[in-house]
Amino acid sequence: MRVVLNGRLACQGADLLRARFGDRLEVLEVADGDRSAAAQDRLARAGALITLGFDETMPPLPALRLIQLPVAGLDQVRLDLVPAGCPVCNVFEHEIGISEYVLAAMLQITLDLGARSARFKAGSWAESPLQGGPARRELAGQTVGCIGYGHIGRAVAARARGFGMRIMAIAASGRAGEPAPDWVGGPAALGEVLAAADFVLIACPLSERTHGLIGAAALDRMKPDAVLINVARGAIVDEPALFKALRARRIGGAVLDTWYRYPSAAEPAVPPAHLPFHELDNVIMTPHCSGWTEGLMPRRFALIADNLERLQSGRPLLNQVHPQPG
Q: In what order do the strands lie in the sheet with 253-256?
């Protein structure tokens, strides 16, 4: 079977797949933006296509038996253009890195070690109890509200529980898996979580239902010192409403890893938002890298390789998202 890896992210798995399958699979690579006749021919003859996106630029794919995403999101996949009967599968495995990032962000906000160290290096003992310094808060006893309780929400909950935090969750079904949160509700109970949480974690998929889910009214429900953490998709949180709430210090702050604008070949250094979040001192910003760890792609391609084995042997595929199994 011929497996075509389309784009830079997919091509990172080439050596892993070749090492596992040897000559049992033909593994070919297509670079980002390659529209050459040779690239089109490789794509056209693919039996399995590992790709971040699938759109109208794809040639006819008569031999295609699987579209395997090397990511979790379907943002760049036109499902209406997928050949009839061809399954689409995704992968996760990013919850380890993202949950560590979220815990690090909550610890940073609570402890502020870097700034404390800088002040002490400059000669100030003002934060010491010996000088009557103010006591800092603890993560223990604080509440994290997980908006979405899938892979990421559950991984954050497992780690937050180790710090003695209270877990509230909004799950699409109104039910939650392990670890069981202290409180769980359906989407209609969002306001209850927003009002109670010290940290509001956005960890749900972007869809028509969740686009703009956190707008001005939702932000107004949050505690004045609460912090919003978005590791899902930028568009779930209304950009102007969030900027206004942060600038007015209506909420305590935000940790933003997902954005409203992304680089392209035409604009490789595009600002991540239409508004100047970088000017706000109550915002931590990172370039959609919270899950990008050394272990991520080896874990993902181990699962992708399992799916290729399953495809060849006719067994049910892992993480099939289209068409829905059954």
A: 183-185, 166-170, 143-147, 199-202, 227-230, 253-256, 283-285
